[in-house]
Specification:
alpha+beta, eight-stranded mixed β-sheet, single chain, 5 helices, Aminopeptidase
Length: 181
């Protein structure tokens, strides 16, 4: 699946062929300092992706490559713990390379929320950010995320559809004129 929403980036569902890309991103010490530890073995990554694809088929989880329109990989992001009854989800596993267009982070957030809130018709998001990841904490605060709590390791946030509607107005300049799904 390809999901296009903003001017400079788009999402493409990961496939079994993406194990090496994911491992490269997750094992890069400059990029992985704020994510869960990675299983380094290619075989284990392949098995994880095979299981993920079953969850994807059942619309229980979505794992995307983040690409620019030249099809360069900028990172990955995941939507999981989807509860269609309560209309909420968690997102994370967000890794982005350092050499990217300046708006890639906000465009990733816009694209992710458009997918979850509009395409999937969900209403609330939950996510956590490591306390040391000040840059990402600040971007979430900038987008209107609500800090639920903080402990010795993480900031725990929620984000809802109303906040997203306001965010879209604030960052309209990054949204494509003709959205293609």
């Amino acid at each position: 699946m390809i999901f296009k929403y903003t001017k400079n980036i788009f999402f493409k569902s990961v496939s079994l062929n993406d194990s090496e890309i994911i491992l490269t991103l997750r094992n890069n010490p400059q990029l992985n300092q704020f994510i869960s530890p990675t299983l380094i073995c290619r075989k284990t990554q392949d098995e994880w992706l095979e299981n993920y694809l079953k969850r994807y088929k059942d619309k229980k989880e979505f794992y995307f490559k983040i690409l620019d329109y030249k099809k360069n990989i900028l990172g990955v992001v995941r939507i999981y713990n989807i509860n269609y009854i309560l209309k909420n989800f968690t997102w994370g596993s967000w890794i982005m390379i350092t050499k990217k267009v300046n708006s890639a982070a906000i465009e990733t957030i816009l694209t992710l929320y458009e997918f979850a809130f509009v395409k999937l018709k969900l209403k609330k998001s939950f996510f956590d950010v490591k306390n040391e990841n000040i840059k990402v904490i600040n971007i979430h605060k900038k987008t209107g995320a609500y800090l639920l709590e903080q402990d010795s390791k993480n900031h725990y946030f929620s984000y809802d559809l109303d906040s997203y509607i306001n965010l879209k107005k604030k960052f309209i300049k990054y949204i494509k004129q003709h959205v293609q799904n």
